[in-house]
Amino acid sequence: MIRFECDYNTGAHPKVMQALMDTNLEACPGYGEDDHCAAAARLIRELCQAPEAAVHFLVGGTQTNLTVIAAALRPHQGVVSTAMGHINDHETGAVEATGHKILPLPSEDGKLTAEQLEQLCRDHETDPCMEHKAQPGMVYLSHPTERGTVYTRAELEAISETAHRHRLLVYLDGARLAYGLAASDLTLPDLARLCDAFYIGGTKAGALFGEALVIPNPALQQDFRYLLKQRGGMLAKGRLLGVQFEALLSDGLYEQIGRTAVAQAMRLKQALLAKGWPLLVDSPTNQQFVVVPNAVYEQLSRNYSTDLSGHPDPEHTAIRFCTGWSTRDEDIDTLIRDIQAL
Amino acid sequence: MIRFECDYNTGAHPKVMQALMDTNLEACPGYGEDDHCAAAARLIRELCQAPEAAVHFLVGGTQTNLTVIAAALRPHQGVVSTAMGHINDHETGAVEATGHKILPLPSEDGKLTAEQLEQLCRDHETDPCMEHKAQPGMVYLSHPTERGTVYTRAELEAISETAHRHRLLVYLDGARLAYGLAASDLTLPDLARLCDAFYIGGTKAGALFGEALVIPNPALQQDFRYLLKQRGGMLAKGRLLGVQFEALLSDGLYEQIGRTAVAQAMRLKQALLAKGWPLLVDSPTNQQFVVVPNAVYEQLSRNYSTDLSGHPDPEHTAIRFCTGWSTRDEDIDTLIRDIQAL
Amino acid sequence: MIRFECDYNTGAHPKVMQALMDTNLEACPGYGEDDHCAAAARLIRELCQAPEAAVHFLVGGTQTNLTVIAAALRPHQGVVSTAMGHINDHETGAVEATGHKILPLPSEDGKLTAEQLEQLCRDHETDPCMEHKAQPGMVYLSHPTERGTVYTRAELEAISETAHRHRLLVYLDGARLAYGLAASDLTLPDLARLCDAFYIGGTKAGALFGEALVIPNPALQQDFRYLLKQRGGMLAKGRLLGVQFEALLSDGLYEQIGRTAVAQAMRLKQALLAKGWPLLVDSPTNQQFVVVPNAVYEQLSRNYSTDLSGHPDPEHTAIRFCTGWSTRDEDIDTLIRDIQAL
Amino acid sequence: MIRFECDYNTGAHPKVMQALMDTNLEACPGYGEDDHCAAAARLIRELCQAPEAAVHFLVGGTQTNLTVIAAALRPHQGVVSTAMGHINDHETGAVEATGHKILPLPSEDGKLTAEQLEQLCRDHETDPCMEHKAQPGMVYLSHPTERGTVYTRAELEAISETAHRHRLLVYLDGARLAYGLAASDLTLPDLARLCDAFYIGGTKAGALFGEALVIPNPALQQDFRYLLKQRGGMLAKGRLLGVQFEALLSDGLYEQIGRTAVAQAMRLKQALLAKGWPLLVDSPTNQQFVVVPNAVYEQLSRNYSTDLSGHPDPEHTAIRFCTGWSTRDEDIDTLIRDIQAL
């Protein structure tokens, strides 16, 4: 069984593990106030060209999302997201559990547009009953999205401009940012310039666990550590997060992980297209969604694990292939050969 | 200006006001533990043929909805509603502020169907990622709905059976129940038999304010007064609610208010149809939604207040006419004459 | 049975009832956007000499408290209160249900001091683990307190100065403000100058129900109506609140209600002291707490209802007598005679 | 600088790190549904003699506490704790952020007693205003406590009996359980028998991070994974927790870590007592609290890091020494020599 069902089924990249071993016996202050976290934060501010940004390290994505959103919004405000956005569809109501409504927008490919956002804001602002509705206070984007698609710089600029003009904050979920950076013209400095907060995902890109939250907007920075602690997101041995991000962000490792997995996914995509199977969406990143006849799915499932993405009709199955830091080129070779042979 | 924009723009029915005057100097225990509340609760249990039901009186609908939903659900559970359901569309995220997600279903006419509910429950139960999604724990219905439509007994039986088979509770928002009872085969005993909780609306049917919450399901009854108090819904002079419901539910006043307003609305509906204007939905109750040319809307607005329900296209306006306990037959006559003359 | 157990056991002052009757058939916009609310708000801003203050009307005290506190605090902030403060001791965790911790301070007489507050703030600010504790964000005062005591102008000035210097907001619960105004040098303009928000209580001073929330601090004013709606505190027929406060605040009715009830309480207090029974606290307002032998309590209970305030020792009972707008002088006379005769 | 300020300033025990290295390239299902978690859960059920207990693995203590408490209580219920309980004093209002009040009891040594609990429950049950107060729904204990003290089996039996008789759940925070097991007659099977839920702490006893939550009470087991996910506590690479607890709970490693650190602490305690310095509390575990003259504190601080626990008076400082899995015997030797030399 070769596993392509997700990008977090193995442990950490060997360089990350080595860094954890090397620092294991160091005695550090707890709760993220150690030298490794400070060094990793410095690296991130440099890479983002955002010398004033606050940087915090959290263990996982849901925790990061709920903490940022609860910290940023007043009680009557909601967060705009696509209906398939991770916070709306895959976090068991975590945002609502902090008291906030999600305002869903339809999307086919996982992206939302500046036009949709403009319309939603205008509808609210011109509604004579506006006080009877949750007020849009933030827009949540994922990049890459839940469908593997990415925003271009121009798209994010338009969304950011629209949001800020209507006094909404922009928050970007970068759980798979390594793969987004490899497949879009958006750079870390762009994100720091256009977002009020975003995170650089570690869990799905070579870390054991960990997400690096970047908060360029000073208004969101205040007292953030209180909020981390309150939501259970302040790791006692915070240094574990600092150490991992130091390793990931040194010597271009994070970029390399992204580039390699995307290249593997592109080879696979060509094989899928050559086979004539329709893609669910045209993804330029490490997630590839394809619709295959049920019999094909069955055959593939004997040797490969994939993620089931639904049944467009009774005869077909939509599946997701994921590459990641531990995907080997030879596994891709084998998979492509098997696909060609089907 | 004759007002048809809603059914709560005047005070209370004269019999209700009289009862408040008559009892004004009585010294009663507070917080709903007085004889008037006890008597009104007795009346309700009799009318519902539900001798074991708990009855509580609250001031308003949003408060009732949020208190019941927060009391009934565990933290990870959500409440199923149509997208246009009052809790989803018109309560500023009040349910989410208690920590619960609303699971919206599409609807054209304000009603949801047993089939939709069955599908949603099955989708959840067969989702390998179910734990990453809010669990359906309750279905919220309004009767009449936000579009004035009503459920039949057979429809509610099917929904109730489906919900309970999947371990969801059934909660029915009866803000306008007076008008629903006049326009559907559903009776109070039906509601008590098919719902775990529902409320008999007073605010929109002749009371100054007040909703009578009926809880037939014993599992929901426990400690409910704590929850009332916690959410700010326990009125100090609770007797005001008891006194009003005693008046409304004696001598058939509540039914009469509903019947009269519905009859007025039916006369108006005939006039609208005769004019050839399309109805937004075929409502048998006191709310009538009609689509008129913009010029007509302008002309009507000089003498009549209505509620704006959107613009189906740039040339037309959808408006709502509401009748209520204080609508006079002569006002309907005048309105109909003016419509005919247009 | 003559009732002294509380100040909200009867309906409304006749002038308030009359105003409700007089306006009953007026058709008004809902949700507090009517002329009566506007007029009452104008009256309040004048009485408070606070032309820029926001004024909102809510039905009850718990609802007002939880809405203001939830609106004002960020998630990691707590509200300082005496341990016996109504929000800490008598609202079923309503504040915590909005997500906020109460930071209790000890008090014998219901008041907290600027010194206590200074110490609490300093302790927090110098705590190396501050981020592991809820941050003080507001101080909650009641005036009169739960023990009937009042703040002087100098005391409130000191508390306000201390709070603001440490960046805490000041919120004052005026459920019984009518009686406080009659027994302290603090005026409405003082409250508007020293508090970020406070409310003028109606329920316990002659209204059927209703509290007038005054928000002098502009930072707290923004979007407040959203928050009202979200917490279930926006009354559909909001005019009922406007009408009542118009009546209460015209022709000095509110002040007169306060003065009269306090005068009655002072007469009673003299009788209690003459009897040699110790007071639980020296209250200058309409609540009088006295400790009597159990046998006395039993005898009194045959003809008078009081509120039980505990058992200081097995032989004694602490009870509360309350006067209010509907207390008659002859009832006080009778009570005093019976006390003297004991 | 030799560090005694806490028991979580280094990484993980070498055997734990080795297990993480050995399994790093295994491809496992995510979210705790892997074989390592299953194996660790099996080990725990055996050690607890609780074949039906549910076991879940979380990253940290605050997260575990808030998730269990929010999962177990209805909205109007509060959790009883000593005032110095970790949830009340050191988690930034995390429990309140889930909507629940903490009901604090005074304590000198960190423990609460069955008598205190009995009194609190009775006071609530006999309070005529009970519905105006948060209902006690759970008792929170820490073992060892925040002061290093432990419960005896008889004490926990009495608390458990009292709690259950009054329908409260018993939850025990075992952040430092390794040290408690080494210093009390309470065993894991006792905890499984007497508690509705408790956790076996990893973070402070040799793991990189991780707490093993044990839920013997079937009523609390239902849907728990939903709640984990909702609160951000479901680790993507859940196997990391399984692998670590497999290592800790095999070959008696967890017990050995506890025993060794406690033995070191007892040697230190003798040295402190020999010096005549008063202990803040008589702790039999790895935390030792001692009161020293300020000058002594200053001298010690040159070579040793400790945790500051306050100033009993202006001339003295209370400090905490902590031993842990990485404390070396020679460090204790050096510290004792330096103390003797002072």
* Total E-strand runs of chain A: 12
Task: Specify the oligomeric state.
Answer: homotetramer
CATH homologous superfamily heading of the largest domain in chain A: Type I PLP-dependent aspartate aminotransferase-like (Major domain)
Mean pLDDT of chain A: 97
Structural class of chain A: alpha/beta
Largest interface: A-D, 51 and 51 residues
Helicity of chain A, in percent? 40-55%
Runs of chain A in which pLDDT lies below 50 for 5 or more consecutive residues are: none
Structure explained in plain terms:
- The structure is a homotetramer of 342-residue chains.
- In chain A, a hairpin with a 7-residue loop joins β11 (307-308) and β12.
- Chain A has 15 helices and twelve strands.
- Chain A folds into two domains: 2-7 and 256-341, Alpha-Beta Complex (Aspartate Aminotransferase, domain 1), CATH 3.90.1150; 14-248, Aspartate Aminotransferase, domain 2 (3-Layer(aba) Sandwich), CATH 3.40.640.
- With 342 residues, chain A is α/β, with parallel strands linked by helices.
- The model of chain A has no long low-confidence stretch (mean pLDDT 97).
- Helix content of chain A is 42%, strand content 17%.
- In chain A, the strands form three sheets. A seven-stranded mixed beta sheet of chain A has the order 2-8-7-6-5-3-4, sandwiched between helices. A three-stranded antiparallel beta sheet of chain A has the order 9-12-11. Chain A has a two-stranded parallel sheet with strand order 1-10.
- Chain A has helices at 14-22, 35-47, 61-72, 86-89, 94-97, 114-125, 153-165, 177-181, 188-194, 218-221, 224-230, 239-248, 253-274, 294-301, 329-341; strands spanning 2-3, 54-58, 77-82, 102-105, 135-142, 169-173, 197-201, 211-215, 287-293, 304-305, 307-308, 316-322.
- Chains in contact: A-B, A-C, A-D, B-C, B-D, C-D.
- Chains A and D meet through α1, α3 and α11 of A and α1, α3 and α11 of D.
